[in-house]
Amino acid sequence: MHPAFSVVFFTTATGTGYGLLALLGVLAGPGFVPPDFWLGLVGMGLALGLISAGLLSSAGHLGRPDRAWRAFSQWRSSWLSREGVASVATFVPAGLFATGWVVLGRTDGWVAVAGLLAAVGAVITVCTTGMIYRSLKPIAQWHSRYTLPGYLIFSAMSGGVLLNALLQGFAIGSTILLAGCMLLTLLGWGWKLATWRYNDRLEIATTANTATGLAGGTVRSLEWPHTEENYLLKEMGFRIARKHKARLRQITQVLAFALPVLLLVAVFALPWPYAAVLSTLAAIVQFAGMLVERWLFFAEAKHTVTLYYGR
Fold it and tell me: CB under 8 Å to 1, separation ≥6 — which residues?
């Protein structure tokens, strides 16, 4: 599949933003995160800013962005429409939670309830995003048991590392949160390796023979459907060289997983403000690594429509 940067940035930014929003909504009520004005302003600003930037970026991949509102009406059958409805609905409790925290200076009572509802909305929205790809049977690399859990794991991982950087910046870092971020990053690393191993061993049953119903012999086109590249080949026939794929996988492992873990380990042994600097660097590096991971997620996917073109 063609890895359009608008969609790559959308899935990365919203995943991190919803992960941060969910953690803030769950942890602020019990008092794990103090109701500080600047902490709330920066934290909710980051979460809602990343979500908004990602959603706006996704509109750049639409042929007619002015008609995007029509997608909301198909929520009964379309995961894309459900994602749109869930993302907009989540802004309601998130806005109330941010208002109570930043304006009223409290995270208890109804503000805590709004935070929990925002967290639930964030998780549901990430699930709908993952199901957009999980539900596509023509793309075997996405239509697997690894896709949806991967979206949830990466969202919690990147959101947790960003929350740790936020709290370290305000000199209120938590050893429990730091350890949790490391475990989530290691879990994400293992899940990504398992996903790659599954995709590399994947045997796609659909061939030109099964598509045409001609079981005997080898089916091939007598004439090519087109003499030049068309929309289908551009969007669904994208191919990446094997050497580039291997190199980008290495970059993903270093930036998204290995280096953030090493930086977080160093945070344990260093005082503030060095811990804050390394925590912020870990969040930035991981975000860059997840951009590469998302690019590969699209670039490595193969759509069965390319069989029509002899691929």
Answer: 139, 235, 236, 238, 298, 299, 301, 302, 303
Quote the CA–CA distance of 214 and 225 in Å, as a whole number.
19
Q: Half-sphere exposure (CA, 13 Å, Cβ side) for 132?
A: 16
Per-residue tokens: 224: 């090519």
Confirm if 260 and 282 have CB atoms less than 8 A apart: yes
Cα–Cα distance between 41 and 166 in angstroms, integer? Answer: 11
Separation between Cα atoms, residue 6 and residue 68, nearest integer Å: 15
C-alpha–C-alpha distance, residues 311 and 309, integer Å: 6
139 phi and psi, to 5 degrees?
Answer: -115, 100
76: tokens are 């009964």
The pLDDT of 234-249, averaged and rounded, is 76
Biggest distance spanned by C-alpha atoms of the chain: 74
User: Quick check: 80 and 14 in contact, CB under 8 A?
Assistant: no
pLDDT, tens digit (0-9, with 9 covering 90-100), for 122-161: 999 999 999 999 998 888 898 999 999 999 999 999 999 9
- Any idea what DSSP says for residue 139? B
CA distance 119 to 103: 20
Q: Does residue 115 have a pLDDT over 70?
A: yes
Tell me how far apart the alpha carbons of residues 302 and 6 are, in angstroms, rounded to a whole number.
19
Q: For residue 303, what pLDDT band results from cuts at 50, 70 and 90?
A: confident
Q: pTM to 2 decimals?
A: 0.91
Domains contained in the chain, CATH given? 5-60+71-204+223-309 (1.20.1630.10)
**Buried-state track 77-102, b at ≥16 Cβ within 10 A, e below 16:** ebbbbbbbbbbeebbebbebbbebbb
Neighbour tally for 265: CB within 10 Å: 13
Separation of alpha carbons 163 and 33, rounded Å: 10
Q: Which two tokens stand for residue 119?
A: 């967290």
CA distance 264 to 216: 58
Asked if 142 and 136 touch (Cβ cutoff 8 Å), the reply is yes
